[in-house]
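INFO batch 0412 | record 1 of 1 | parsing
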Amino acid sequence: MTFDSRRFLDTVSESPGVYRMFDDKGDTLYIGKARRLKARLASYFRGTLNAKTQALVGRIADIQVTITNSETEALLLEQTLIKQLRPPYNILLRDDKSYPFVFVSDRHPFPALEHKRARTRHQDGRYFGPYPSSGAVRESLSLMQKVFRIRNCEDGVFANRTRPCLQYQIQRCSAPCVGYISEEEYRRDIEHAIQCLEGRSEAVSNELSQDMEAASAALDFEEAARLRDQLQDLRRLQQRQIVDTGSGDADVFALAAQPGALVISVLAFRQGRLLGARHHSPNNGLDLGEGELLGEFISQYYLGQAKEIPAEVLTTHPVPDAVLIGMALTEQAGRRVRLTEKVRGHRAQWRELARTNAEQQLGGQLANQTQLKKRFEALREALGLDQPPARLECFDISHSHGEATVASCVVFDQDGPRKGDYRRFNISGVAAGDDYAAMEQALTRRFKRLTKGEGVLPDVLVVDGGKGQLNMARDVLASLEIQDVILLGVAKGTTRKAGLETLFIETVDRTLQLAPTSPGLHLIQHIRDESHRFAIAGHRAKRDKARRTSTLQDIPGVGPKRRRELLRFFGGLQGIKQASRDELARVPGISATMADTIHRALNG
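INFO prediction complete | emitting tokens
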């Protein structure tokens, strides 16, 4: 079966990550990393390729991607997988003993941070690393020089300087070569840099914060400003690399599901490093809940199998029998195993990364050409049409108690979602919370263009909301004299559970109840959920934009004490605005919920 690159690329994320190419036997052909997965993978199927790359592309039967939070994390995972799997089209990496290091001499009174290709036995000093590449070493050295102004010149150059060099002029060196800094002060900066290289940057931040406050109290505002800038640079340096935290063994199970499709992704972390991801599509024949299904899957995944069981098994959903399964895993492993979904810090980030990967894989499944054809054919039969509809449009409304009302229009054809045709409508001039009037405005604006010869007429118009919304849509089409469009209203069942929807065709008197397993119903559910997601995203962006002018004083729950701690931690309002939610949550007295509130108020 030929690999459908176009369909695959339609589902690939723009995020950084790692991709694995497989042949028709399931063997790994090649492993690569990318800052933007979609752009990198598209390059294999477009343009002119060399002979070796053409041979690789010709053997591809499948591609799997693992999303990471940065290109650096992707690099670390790529190296781990290449060393583990040794794919034939990869250049095999070297052993750790030949990786580059950072070296600090013990002999020199003003030591530099040096890039070393390998350890040297007869040098007195300390080595830090190994680093994954020379680029990673250069990046670390550049950050250390920027934050702590450590020299980077050779000892011979240092000994013969009579005036400061350009590095001093651009504030990347404190000029110890000409005595602009004492040995004691320089040694303090070196120790700060070493602490950061060892992962103890939080202690350095606290010390710099105290020094900044002391300088400010002494009215030495120039020194306080310098320390503030240094502190802000250090905060940026402290952004956590969640793929390589240096500690913790865990398998993370994430479940993503939509009607007719299900994915469970398993990410394995050992000593804080992501070793890889596997994706599974089990059959949920008993229609279990998400937590129950995860519990069943974890039990079958480990119990009675010759798999290594880590110290922690993390899940994205609460597992009802977590205690019982944990006891069974503990007995099989011969040591305590913790099964939980309640985690914090970098483990919570691991869990979110697993969730992202599961959702990415699910999107690929939903866009599968064979499955889409089956769904469109089932919908054709349900609606009694001569041929499957070529274009479906679905509308939905989103607001918060009438604030920032937004309508969405999403479009599907037989190739899946046509995101380039998606539209949002900012609703104005209607009463707060009047969804009918909001729907009328959105439909009128959309279909009025068709009367002017603009746009494409859909075969099926899906309206989320049932009888009232269907009647509203029919009135709009009649007033604009729009014909040859099948109206389809989707009303949730009494329990609002997926699979129990009632479909209204053209009028409220003509209803259709499809089986929960019907591919045609799955298609309707998919486009309805996508329109709901798209509407919510637009509403939140509009609402947050209106609130983005907030200052700390305007944020509920942020009083004088919290403002003081935030300013002390980040050195100023600009640093607070640039901080991520995780960084805000590290401030004393700031919970994860409060961090999210602050981040939304300042950034949207």
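INFO post-check: DSSP finds 21 helices and 19 strands in the chain.
INFO record closed
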